[in-house]
């Protein structure tokens, strides 16, 4: 699976914004929240604000998150590390093609002042996705064995025929996602995530009844995105009046007007998409598909909860910041960015500490003894994954401040460093050594990235470092009993019980220190309780 956070940008209706957008579980009106982020909203302003929109996406994705986490242990007991490794290589190839397929014009869907211009950009994206998918079909039809040989992945050639389909479905998903972001229909996005998870996992678990092979994983993934696209398209039908006004002439004008997206953003986004896929390709080349399978599980498990939350915050953050910068909303950008960054640290640091302390035990318990190695890989990758989690939402500032060239340069250098690190590691050491070098380069580059982005918003480096140190210190201090139990080799269930006790203590301390987040979380729990 692709790793978290490299990089997603939405805006006005991730769906169009009604003040009563419904998710399958919770509505903003149900929650009756009047929260504040950065600037105070007047009592008469009933439009959904930043925190409420994040809550909508998060609450609407709770079912998808829980199902995804609960069903992964079943999948790991059905499929082997080799199966998962081939599936990961399939995802890496199709993920890169899907990102490339729109030439990053989907980011421009957020920018036009008129709905008609935005619709022309969206259709332009759909045309580019279709062309890319057809060209991909020609390659996989005539050169499947060549691809298999280059990847050192025996057996993958017979599954490459499905790459054009998922490239198309994934690309169309991106286009619809950004159109719905502009329209502020966050409930539709939340619902699509649930449908994607349910349909994908259902087919991945059902197909092995006839045949246990990578086909089950691949077919389930393709079908899941197909259903999700249809679900989103059903909502977009209400915008047909706007889409009837599109024209080839206008699409050409939009393509020229927003040429910086394909010229700079597309290549930086592509490089940034390739970067997390580099381990899959090079680990397969040096060590085989089973190592790719172990790495894939480690990556997937951490990114399922962190990815859902990070993307939800990112989507609403981009919409909010874009409006503030364009003068359509009042607000202090420094305060907004600072609050988001603080909450990302608050939420993410403690799970990362737990994984460092007991990664192998968690993976063995949850996924079976054969997946112990994935726990080791997680411990190596945790520092990098955490920094990417922090960076993912605020990376939209590159587009907001029109710093595409900086983003492009950063992404290309990061990609080169990833390749060099893994080649050195693969040539001279074990998978753990290679992943250690990979993680180290990620930490160095994403530390710089975060500092640069915060500086764009006017936040001093020391301010951000103090926040990070504060919550890390709280997490480590609270975890001391857990560390002692691990050092003493206590029974796993004793350690697990200690972790379950310590976790609410950490969040209790940090929530008490953060009144806004405490209010948000309390309202969320009250509503969930009322639905049970």
Explain what the structure shows.
It is a single chain. With 532 residues, the chain is mainly α. The protein contains 22 helices and one strand. It has helices spanning 28-31, 50-60, 62-78, 81-101, 115-142, 144-151, 163-182, 186-206, 214-236, 240-243, 248-257, 260-287, 289-325, 333-367, 372-394, 397-400, 404-428, 431-456, 461-478, 480-487, 492-513, 515-531, and one strand at 13-14. The longest helix is centred in the middle third of the chain and has 37 residues, at 289-325. It starts with 12 loop residues before the first strand and ends with a helix. The relative contact order is 0.13. Residues 1-48 have low confidence and may be disordered.
C-alpha end-to-end distance? 32 Å
Q: Helical percent range?
A: over 70%
Order of helices and strands: EHHHHHHHHHHHHHHHHHHHHHH
> Ranges with pLDDT <50 over ≥5 residues?
1-48
Please, how many helices? 22
Rounded to the nearest angstrom, the radius of gyration is 22 Å
What integer is the average pLDDT? 79
Overall geometry comes to globular
* Fraction in beta strands: under 5%
Pairing-aware structural class of the strands and helices?
A: mainly alpha
Number of strands: 1
- Summarize the main sheet: none
């Amino acid at each position: 699976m692709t790793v978290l956070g490299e990089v997603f940008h939405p805006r006005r209706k991730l769906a169009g914004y009604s003040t009563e957008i419904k998710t399958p579980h919770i509505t903003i009106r149900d929650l009756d929240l009047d929260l504040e982020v950065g600037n105070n909203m007047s009592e008469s302003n009933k439009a959904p604000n930043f925190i409420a929109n994040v809550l909508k996406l998060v609450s609407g994705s709770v079912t998808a998150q829980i199902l995804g986490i609960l069903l992964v242990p079943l999948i790991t007991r059905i499929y082997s590390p080799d199966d998962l490794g081939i599936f990961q290589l399939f995802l890496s190839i199709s993920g890169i093609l899907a990102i490339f397929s729109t030439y990053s014009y989907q980011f421009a869907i957020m920018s036009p002042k008129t709905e008609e211009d935005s619709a022309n950009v969206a259709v332009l994206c759909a045309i580019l996705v279709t062309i890319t998918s057809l060209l991909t079909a020609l390659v996989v039809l005539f050169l499947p064995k060549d691809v298999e040989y280059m990847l050192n992945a025996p057996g993958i050639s017979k599954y490459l025929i499905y790459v054009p389909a998922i490239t198309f479905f994934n690309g169309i998903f991106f286009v619809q996602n950004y159109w719905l972001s502009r329209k502020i229909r966050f409930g539709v996005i939340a619902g699509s995530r649930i449908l994607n998870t349910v349909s994908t996992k259902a087919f991945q678990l059902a197909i092995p009844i006839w045949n246990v092979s990578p086909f089950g994983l691949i077919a389930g993934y393709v079908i899941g995105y197909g259903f999700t696209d249809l679900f989103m398209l059903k909502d977009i039908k209400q915008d047909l009046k706007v889409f009837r006004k599109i024209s080839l002439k206008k699409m050409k004008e939009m393509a020229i007007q927003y040429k910086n997206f394909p010229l700079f953003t597309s290549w930086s986004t592509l490089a940034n998409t390739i970067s997390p896929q580099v381990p899959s390709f090079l680990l397969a080349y040096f060590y085989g598909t089973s190592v790719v399978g172990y790495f894939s599980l480690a990556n997937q498990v951490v990114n399922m909860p962190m990815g859902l939350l990070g993307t939800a915050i990112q989507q609403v953050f981009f919409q909010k910041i874009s409006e503030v910068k364009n003068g359509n909303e009042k607000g202090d950008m420094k305060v907004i960015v600072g609050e988001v960054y603080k909450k990302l640290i608050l939420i993410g640091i403690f799970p990362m500490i737990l994984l460092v302390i007991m990664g192998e035990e968690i993976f063995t318990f949850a996924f079976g003894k054969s997946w112990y190695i994935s726990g080791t890989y997680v411990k190596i990758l945790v520092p990098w994954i955490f920094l990417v989690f922090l960076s993912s939402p605020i990376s939209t500032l590159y587009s907001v401040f029109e710093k595409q060239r900086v983003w492009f340069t950063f992404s290309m250098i990061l990609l080169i460093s990833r390749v060099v690190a893994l080649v050195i590691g693969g040539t001279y050491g074990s998978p753990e050594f290679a992943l250690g070098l990979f993680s180290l380069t990620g930490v160095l580059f994403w530390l710089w990235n975060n500092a640069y982005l915060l500086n764009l918003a006017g936040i001093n480096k020391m301010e951000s470092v103090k926040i990070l140190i504060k919550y890390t210190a709280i997490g480590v201090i609270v975890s001391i009993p857990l560390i002692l139990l691990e050092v003493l080799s206590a029974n796993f269930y004793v350690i697990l019980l200690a972790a379950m006790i310590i976790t609410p203590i950490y969040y209790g301390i940090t929530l008490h220190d953060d009144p806004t987040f405490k209010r948000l979380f309390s309202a969320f729990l009250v509503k969930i309780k009322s639905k049970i």
